[in-house]
Amino acid sequence: MSKICFVINSFDIGGIERVIVTLCNGLCKHHHVDLITLKNHGALKETLSCNVNIVDFCNIKARNLVKPLLLYLNKNKPDYIVTSIWPITVLSHIAIKKAKSDVKQIVTHHALFDLENKKNIIADFCTKKIIAFFYNRAYKVLAVSVSVKRFLQNIGVKVVSVMYNPFDTEQRKLNVKKELVNAVQYGKYFVFVGRLAKIKNITLILKSFSLFVSGDGYKDYNLLIIGDGSEKEFLKAYAEKLNIKQCCFFLGSKSFPEAYIQHAVAVLMASFSEAMPVTVLESFGFNVPVVSTPATGCLDIFNLLGYSWHTDSFDNAEEYCSLMKYVVSHKDEFPDMASRVEENYGLEKILDLWNEVLA
Length: 359
Description:
seven-stranded parallel sheet
């Protein structure tokens, strides 16, 4: 049995936080697991196993992490510390170097750089150099997809392994019940779940949906937008400009969006860049089709699971709309994706791979 420590900002809903809580719940069955949180609040806390020990760092800011983490490491002497969030990974490395213990750092990397970051060439260059410097000094570096592994290798990280995010089918089914009544009231709908940012290319979804509902036989469909972000007001105004305001609903962030995904006609994605989109796994886990652009992280999942319902471009609303119509008319031909998700991303399989890392 190993003693493992994970570090998160809080229990607020986020893709990385959700993955870490899932891993903690699985690994605590065979290991001692501590979960350090900088802020001890958030909806995910109610999904955490009682066998995971919460270590509350009492609302500190990430930049002040080194001192309390150093005290924790010297007192508790874990075998491994798992970090996933920038700049926690760097600050944890500094604390480890000062600690009087032999703790090993495992870094999990969940993201590709947003395309917007490339506007600042100097910051982009420096960040990549810092990542490579610290990651090359970690015990293990785990990338959540083939695309992320390729990205890390290209910026100078020498040894990277792929470790897919786990999909916990049973927990997802429990989460459905939290929003089921609210989801079914929207009738037939498509849904987008994610951050409302330019990188997500949501204008393509709105354009495509406006074309979709203008066709005969599709006027009773709705579009649900779940998430918040800097583009929200712009997107609401754009939906009004496209005359779809009456059938396009901006629902804000949802702690547990699974019910909206399960009852959707299809989940819509249009990102320019994705690392390892959990929403795709959630959709397939409920046997719900995905309409997507060819973002690299999506293609990683599609290629592994044998799925081909995606566009060839990032800006062709007619092509995207045609695929939406194809999904509606061919839904009976949709393959059993849930079994493929369980086979490749199921919690027990991923836990077995983690146990090999921790051996």
